[in-house]
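Student: Send me a single protein entry containing the residue sequence and its fold in token form, directly below this note:

Tutor:
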Amino acid sequence: MNKINKIENLTCHCKEVQIELKLNNGLEEVVRCNCSLCKKRGSIMAKIKINNLKIIKGFDKLKLYKFGKNKAEHFFCSKCGIYTHHKSYTNPENYEFNIACLDNIDTFKFKDVPVFDGKKL
């Protein structure tokens, strides 16, 4: 895995959505989730405090998909369809973000990523 900077830019595929992440402690709590949505999209996520994620461009392009008793809020780009982040269902002061949206990350190098049991929620 490449070096993570304290400030990283996350982008969707078409680059219409750009998000600044303050990663003072690098990637924290890297996980996959086995809930019905995450299982289908196959993303690897990391947590971040809400105030450390700032949408720089494309707020108007982000669409919200809610499920799980309408508490799980997942955001994706309305142009290219890429999931960028979601508000944590279990810890509402955090977001989880799609680490594959960081240009300097190769998620295929991640081995043995822990699985969060989202089926129970």
